[in-house]
Amino acid sequence: MSIAVYPGSFDPITCGHLDIIKRSSRMFDEVIVAVLNNSSKRPLFSAVERVRLIEKSIAGLPNCRAMYFDGLLVDFVKQQGASVVIKGLRAISDFEYEFQMALLNKKLNPDIETLFMVTNANYSYISSSIVKEIADLGGNFADLLPSEIYEEVKQKIEKGR
Ligand code: COA
Prior knowledge:
By secondary structure, this protein is of the alpha/beta class. The protein is built from 6 helices and 5 strands, in the order E-H-E-H-E-H-E-H-E-H-H.
């Protein structure tokens, strides 16, 4: 059975992430969307909230599930019996950082492969921070998020203003 892990902060999940998840779900028996900590970020949504937002967004994808892990990506991948990490590349500017991460993860566990998937051009300009900024400033961000989570994200950001 082929299991892939799609890791990220997902603060919150966007249409760009969902596009990668859908395409990955056609390539692997199972895709685990893993909410992990990026030590350089302070997330707006708690880990529990981020997992729930992902679960709502992937409800129609039976071979995908969401989990949180507070540790190294390679340890999570091994624990889940997976061997592939999927990362989305939005622009050439993503490449240098992602390349470094892939090499580091390979050094930490040589059995794990990183697979880069090119983001759909329609979503290449999206990031979770951009969505939060537009929402915070009262702009329309409905097209940038899975429709199932739009209201919850909107309310959370409005409350925090
Ligand atoms: N569509 C839209 N946006 C996308 C995207 C896509 N396909 N792919 C990435 N993005 C966005 C993300 O939302 C994120 O936006 P933000 O900066 O506004 O939050 C940005 O692009 C960067 O994404 P990414 O490089 O995947 O960073 P991340 O913070 O989401 O995830 C972790 C990084 C959590 C996977 C990484 O820190 C990690 O593995 N942590 C675990 C600890 C560990 O193992 N550390 C050592 C690694 S060597």
